[in-house]
Amino acid sequence: MLSKTSINKVLNWEHWPSSMFYVPNLPYAFYLAFRAGNTTFFTAANPALKSSGNGTESKYETIQLVPEKHRPKSVLVTEKNSFQDILNQLQKEKILYPLIAKPDVGFRGLLVKKIHSETELKQYLEKYPVNIILQEFLDYENECGVFYHKNPRTNKGHISSLTLKRFLSVIGDGKSTLKELILADERAKLYIDLFEEIHQHKLNEILKKEQKIKLTAIGNHSKGTQFINGNHLISEKLIQTFDNLSNSIDGWYYGRVDVKYNTFSALENGTDFKVLEINGVISEPTHIYDAENYSYFKALKTIRQHWKSLFKIATTNHYYNNITLVKPRVFINEMRWLKSYIKKIKKYSG
């Protein structure tokens, strides 16, 4: 029998599985492949990324493409690294606790965690034996996702999606425990299992009146973060900032950039922001998950519109810039590997 929480997720389309957004659009994907004359036409969109960013690329290698002033300090951990080596690298890069740990090949926030101590870091690395990025925790006030795309033959692009992220939090009343406050919040209670793990030592604490607790520091939809349509904030200044970012990265023309910033004006003017990661052809225009202001069918249409832009960019790169396409057999093998990898890290997270 479905629980009330499960029923709420079924009724609210923003929580539906990704297949509900892509299977209905498959006929359009086949149409684009037919027009391009190749099933892997999209792999020419971002020459700077492995297979243009199909999910198998290294997030560490990708973040290194970003100009130093706009990227967080990061360390890549592999099986070859001893724990002492890792500590030495953190010290060399001046990365302090808390820090963020996440898989080098990531998927929808799986295994992303805020680490508060050396002991916690050691436990995390022992539990998850895959390549891991350790990244400085950016104590910026805000986070957003910016979907940017540009014709490879121009220096000016477009921003087609701006997603503001609202982190879930609760405010104390001087009487209720943290767990009671979570369960009293219509959105937070949908993620009670996650928050019970994150705040396991604080669940029975009574919060002081007006005391605010942020329930998660990870700006991912699967972690409870609410996605809000911010397209009304797109301006020429913001586009220029991301034109500059794209022009500084040779071979990135299409995808979503997740960024941290304090004030929107600082982001808009390009004076103070940090890129958490750059995503390629599997990027989503995440403003569509603002279910209060967007309909399911409009979300499907928006995905198709972005695929149309992807088609134009990839075919331009292929035919005018002689960018080689990834062979279908190679692409299929990469997807098989990714499926196996995701299954493995889901098993770890369980």
Describe the structure.
The protein is 36% helix and 16% strand. With 350 residues, it is α+β, with helices and mostly antiparallel strands. The chain folds into 3 domains: 1-55 and 139-167 and 226-350, no CATH class; 73-137, Dna Ligase, domain 1, CATH 3.30.1490; 169-215, no CATH class. Strands 9-6-5-10-11 form a 5-stranded antiparallel sheet. Strands 1-4-2-3 form a 4-stranded antiparallel sheet, with helices on one face. It has a two-stranded antiparallel ribbon with strand order 7-8. α3 runs parallel beside α11 (296-320). The chain starts with a helix and ends with a helix. The mean pLDDT is 93.
Beta percentage is 15-25%
End-to-end separation in angstroms reads 22 Å
| Unreliable parts | none
The gyration radius over C-alpha positions equals: 21 Å
Structural class: alpha+beta
Fraction in helix: 25-40%
Could you give the count of β-strands? 11
Specify the overall morphology. globular
Helix and strand element order: HHHHEHEEHEEEEHHEEHEHEHH
> What do the pLDDT scores average to?
93
What are the SSEs and their pairings?
Blueprint: H1 4-11, H2 19-22, H3 26-36, H4 59-63, E1 74-77, H5 83-93, E2 99-103, E3 113-115, H6 118-127, E4 132-136, E5 142-149, E6 158-166, E7 169-171, H7 178-184, H8 192-198, E8 212-214, E9 226-229, H9 236-247, E10 254-261, H10 264-268, E11 274-278, H11 296-320, H12 328-349
Antiparallel strand pairs: 1-4, 2-3, 2-4, 5-6, 5-10, 6-9, 7-8, 10-11
Helix pairs in contact: 3-11
Descriptive terms for the model:
12 helices, 4-stranded antiparallel sheet, Dna Ligase, domain 1, 350 residues, alpha+beta
